[in-house]
Description:
By secondary structure, the chain is an alpha/beta fold. It contains eight helices and seven strands. The chain has a seven-stranded parallel beta sheet with strand order 3-2-1-4-5-6-7, with helices on both faces. Strand 4, helix 4 and strand 5 form a beta-alpha-beta unit.
Amino acid sequence: MSESQRVAIVTGAARGIGAAIATRLAADGRAVAVLDLDEQACQQVVDQIDAAGGRALALGCDVADEAAVAAAVQRVATELGAPTILINNAGVIRDNMLHKMSVDDWDTVMGVHLRGAFLMTRAVREHIAAEKFGRIVNLSSTSAQGNLGQVNYSAAKAGIQGFTKTLALELGRFGATANAIAPGFIETDMTRATAERMKLSFDDFLAGAAAQIPVGRVGQPADIAAAASYLTSDEAGFVSGQVIYVAGGPKD
Length: 252
């Protein structure tokens, strides 16, 4: 199968980073399954891709639900073709200090980020093995190094990195690569919600963040989409098991 005919699934793609990745991969010539909890919420992204001459499919799916994931991946295979590119981007935050964090806050974050990435990747593995090609990109975060009030999110994003490195070891024999992108501060609805929770104006929040970033600005979803575009390309076939920090400066 030529590069331009490949089929990608992007989770958490109704908005923000996921939507930017979906539209970028479509521009790269992929057929793209735009997956999020609410299928209707994905339609705007699908319409944008269709209007630009691409092929896309809106999918409603809870990535933490095993049966729903199996059904969604089967639908992609039937309607678009064998999915061999997977972007595990779906995520939620339930921020709180350790002593205030509920078990539900912990389980919800682990369920979406880790269980979701596991279920989605396991479901596409058979297609990767059959096609002898695969590109998996998992979204980690600079929070994987620790972040106040995010013990659940930080643990999940650190777990994603170990998950990614193990996938690279297991799936390489199928011509597949697995890498993680760890974004720094990206301007999204999620960071806007954080500012509101901190009772800060979004402009002040962005300015404060930019002042701490060596390149002097906050990141945009397109910055992450550009990294995903490269990592899912045929040219990136010798890059695997890596965590790439897209954060405007060096990270350990």
